[in-house]
Amino acid sequence: MEERAENNAEEVKKSPLPSNRVFLPLEWPQRLLGSLFILALIVGMAVVVITIKESLVSKQFESIQKDFYTFTSKIGFTIDEIIIEGRKRTNSVDLLKAIGLSRKDNIFEVDVHALQKRVQQLPWVRKAIVRKSFLPNVIMVSIQEKEVQSLWQISEQFHPIDEEGRVIEADYIPDKPVLLIVGNGAPENINALLNIIKKDTKIFERVKVANYISQRRWNLVLDDVRNGITIKLPEINVDEAWKKLIKLNTTKGILKRKLTIIDLRFKGRIGIKLRKTPENTDIKLNNSVEKNI
Question: pLDDT value at position 166?
Fold first, then answer.
């Protein structure tokens, strides 16, 4: 009996159990695509509805805005006057064209920010401030113009340079002495030089030309463009070389001598070249005699 029971148990284990799972056909890709299509259709319809609504609102707003400007113009809110302050070099025709307003324009319609941006795009304008006032209806345009720091000579052309070393794209006729700079890359590097040589105002006032040599270093010409003293500055340690020149001028009066060249490019020594005149005398520097070179 025990053996028969064991055999029955083994047969029960080997026989497959009935399954309650039902296998459906693979329809999920089609359902996913269908859902995405419906979603896209809903989104598209929503976009169309919103666009139409915004268009209608925009048209209604524009109509109301136009009616407002028309009404306020009839009761006197047109521009009475345009006042411009600070203009010296800016071309008046170009300025009025940038402002683009007349007495018939409605003062409420003036966009001061857009007007300010247009004025600041003019070559001589560094900064512009635009304000409007009512009764009387006045547009006030206040401009701050660029200052000419130097005049750049390149390819036989002359270009004014502002305080930031940028070219001012405008015609310029100097009304006072201005530093002449020469050579490729001179405008971009002039401020670094000026920060050094302006430390002695008396010497700086004598500088007429700054020549940027091979985009590496500067030669300065003092007193006269053709017959002045040429100071050759080094490529590096310009500040130290300039301090040396100031000291020599203070103690030895070197810039009072009749020289054509002062060469500061060499560490520990200075080269000079005397102007050829009968009264030339030797110049003592650091307890030694510098010869003509």
Answer: 94
Q: Which of 2-6, 188-192, 201-205, 221-225 has the lowest mean pLDDT?
A: 2-6
- Structure pTM? 0.67
Helix (H, G, I), strand (E, B) or coil at 202: helix
The residue ranges of DSSP E strands in the chain, in sequence order, are: 81-85, 125-133, 138-145, 150-154, 157-161, 179-182, 207-213, 217-222, 229-232, 259-263, 271-274, 283-285, 288-290
Q: Where are the alpha helices (DSSP H) in 149-287?
A: 186-197, 201-204, 238-252
Is residue 194 predicted with pLDDT exceeding 60? yes
**Nearest to residue 211, comparing CAs of 233, 238, 192?**
233
Kindly state the tokens that stand for 72. 């306020």
Domains of the chain in start order, with CATH, are 81-145 (3.10.20.310), 150-290 (3.40.50.11690)
Widest pairwise Cα distance in the chain: 149
